Amino acid sequence: MRVLSRLVALPVLVALGVAACGSHAPGADDAEGGPTGALTVLAAASLRDAFERLRGVFEDEHPGVTVTFAFAGSSTLAQQVLAGAPADVLATASTPTMALVGDLADEPVVVARNTLEIVVPVDNPAGITSLADLADPGVTLALCAPEVPCGAAAADAFAAAGITPTPDTYEKDVTAALTRAVLGEVDAALVYRTDVLAAGESVRGIPLPDDVRSSTDYPVAVLTEAPNPDAARAFVALVRSAQGRQVLTEAGFEVP
């Protein structure tokens, strides 16, 4: 039996506490009436590139606000909210993980959709061409942990294809699974299309056929105990705007 590895969850709660201590008081308005202070956004790891681009846009539009992101697996972020993390916005990679926080979040809005792809090292040493190849015991495979959205989406894809994989490692989030392929530590991983695009020429992506194509929705919500609700609402508005939709589309997401 292969040894399964699980990486330790990010200490998001501690990091956010440190970040909050170094910021000026949130919630006030700047000279032009806009939000000021610190804004903390908890976001699924696969949103990193798109949200980092939106950070610059947001801070240009609201120079009195400093944005801090905490990227991790969606289930980890939901647990941090339940534990009382001092955050303003939550963006997850599935509606079930958003539902975990219950009434600690305002009504969420789906802003994007993502699909799974097989990712392999550039030289594709195992010669992988399809999902069926991942059932070969000789293929080293990285999957996201079952409790995070990319892991659940992978399980759906394998079930649709009638395939039982034997993964060598379960990773804490999609970024960690992608890294395994980038470094050539595995023959393949299942990650999101957006992560394949973000990795550029360091990997090769293999799309799944339509009959087993697995996707997931991305809801975003202002947290009900947000320290800076004005900035939180402004950030969610940016994500939902035409500019936000363009950034998400360019990153490889589908938008409603």
Description:
This protein has helices spanning 12-21, 48-61, 74-82, 95-99, 149-161, 174-182, 193-199, 229-240, 242-250, and strands at residues 37-44, 65-72, 89-91, 109-121, 141-144, 169-171, 188-192, 203-207, 215-222. The protein has two domains: 12-113 and 218-250, 3-Layer(aba) Sandwich (D-Maltodextrin-Binding Protein, domain 2); 114-215, 3-Layer(aba) Sandwich (D-Maltodextrin-Binding Protein, domain 2), CATH 3.40.190.10. It has 256 residues and is of the alpha/beta class. Helices cover 34% and strands 22% of the residues. It is elongated. Helix 2 links the parallel strand 1 (37-44) and strand 2 (65-72). Residues 1-25 form the signal peptide. One of its GO terms (biological process) is molybdate ion transport.
Gist of the model:
InterPro entries: ModA, ModA/WtpA. This protein is α/β, with parallel strands linked by helices.
For CATH, the homologous superfamily of the largest domain is named as Periplasmic binding protein-like II
CATH-derived architecture of the largest domain: 3-Layer(aba) Sandwich
Average residue-wise pLDDT? 89
Count of DSSP H/I helices: 9
β-strand percent reads 15-25%
Number of domains: 2
Which regions contain 5 or more consecutive residues with pLDDT less than 50?
Answer: 1-15, 17-29
Termini separation: 43 Å
Which CATH class of the largest domain is shown?
Alpha Beta
Helix content: 25-40%
Shape: elongated
Order of helices and strands: HEHEHEHEEHEHEHEEHH
CATH topology of the largest domain: D-Maltodextrin-Binding Protein, domain 2
